[in-house]
């Protein structure tokens, strides 16, 4: 317990430092914020870009077998249908009609076996009743007996509109399919039958369960006002048996042609360009395509600072291989992932491999490893490495009707390559870097906080200051040194606020490895004092040696 508290304190200290020193702010903070979004300040941008550039250099520029791509965020909706995201990147949500609390339907229904049995009973019984009704053309002409039967099936209200028994049977068939994924009318009926109460208000007034797709949708073109798909229902008053027509707008607008999604991952933008790159570059197998960029997920509960946000950045690679070699290639990527963690300055003992067991893996994956890191919030996923077989290219070949086969040069051998996918989250890498770097120690009897950032990641490499800012000759000399270093290293900061002690403290907190101070001796001997962040040691260095 005390360990957990210490860790949370550390997390809070990091979040507070990140805000105070201009790394990361809450998104739209000035307007009260927008949950699950974060804005990067001047130092945060630098740190993030340094991480992304390091990755690009390591996995693209320094290799012969890698090709970079940068696909559009908005993609043809067929991409997400083929990949399964439209159908399966969803959660079933059920709402309490009394207090509007929302629950995951598949979480609130705990006895899955019982649910399954009742589901089958309900739909076969309902179908028998509907078939036996011989309904007339208009629901306004239903007899009391017919109304009672329908109310028996659908509950007190909202009998679906239809023009024939056949249509009502189709409606039931569709809902049977939905209900097996905890969607539609049946979860409501089931919870009512079981007298399951809302945990918040204690009432039992459930609404139909709806899909909640984690993809953000928007629409292309000017007709976006009219895309809502509508369903007609008849409300039947239990007492008077009076029938009234109601129109219900469906939030689920997946069927409309002008819906587009903000991509929930960058990987599909790589797969859709596989053929293009093969045709332009004729790469030998194995080869990889890499992409960095924004992705979006409508998380129900974003949490833990930048760890789970609704808008985030990914760095993904699809590495195309001959399936015969998959094990060796996979093991090679395991080593490369560890090399990456090392380049980020993450202590090896805090990086863990979690073999995902077969039951938890996607059906097409023969092996998946989640790489976890000991964050202050606990051990959580840092990045993933998955062997995806030919699942994605198979889908594209089938759905787009384009040939995805790779022909081995100088032979007639052709096959659809298999894929190993290392998938890196930028914010998780950044949070791991901050967690590993955050250090407290004591200097001259005072508590000191500093970020032990690796030099190649630090947003500021050198801070340059004159010993006294009211001595023009010192300022002029320090400006000279600043200009030289700025030209050489780029990320150099001019800092003449407060006294030297305060400057050191500030630079320690943002992880600046070296502070350079120009004093009166500098005017004579052309040397400066350079102070090292981690050791706080100071030494004299000639300016031309910096
Ligand atoms: Zn409630």
Keywords, please?
26 strands, alpha+beta, 17 helices, 7-stranded mixed sheet, 5-stranded mixed sheet, BirA Bifunctional Protein, domain 2, 3 domains, elongated, 546 residues, Rossmann fold, binds zinc ion
Helix content: 25-40%
Which structural class should the secondary elements be placed in?
alpha+beta
CATH architecture heading of the largest domain: 2-Layer Sandwich
CATH topology of the largest domain: BirA Bifunctional Protein, domain 2
Present as ligands are: zinc ion
Main sheet characteristics: 7 strands, mixed
**Residue fraction in strands:** 25-35%
* Low-pLDDT stretches: 223-229, 251-255
Please report the first level of CATH classification, the CATH class of the largest domain: Alpha Beta
Quick description:
It contains 17 helices and 26 strands. The protein is an alpha+beta fold and 546 residues long.
Question: Could you characterize the architecture of this molecule?
Answer:
This protein has 546 residues and is an alpha+beta fold. Helices cover 36% and strands 25% of the residues. It has 17 helices and 26 strands. The strands form eight sheets. A seven-stranded mixed β-sheet has the order 3-12-13-19-16-15-14. It has a five-stranded mixed β-sheet with strand order 23-22-24-25-26, with helices on both faces. Helix 2 crosses helix 14 and helix 6 (112-131) packs antiparallel against helix 8 (165-179). Mean pLDDT is 90; it is low at 223-229 and 251-255. Zinc ion binds at residues 96, 98-99, 101, 198, 200-201, 203.
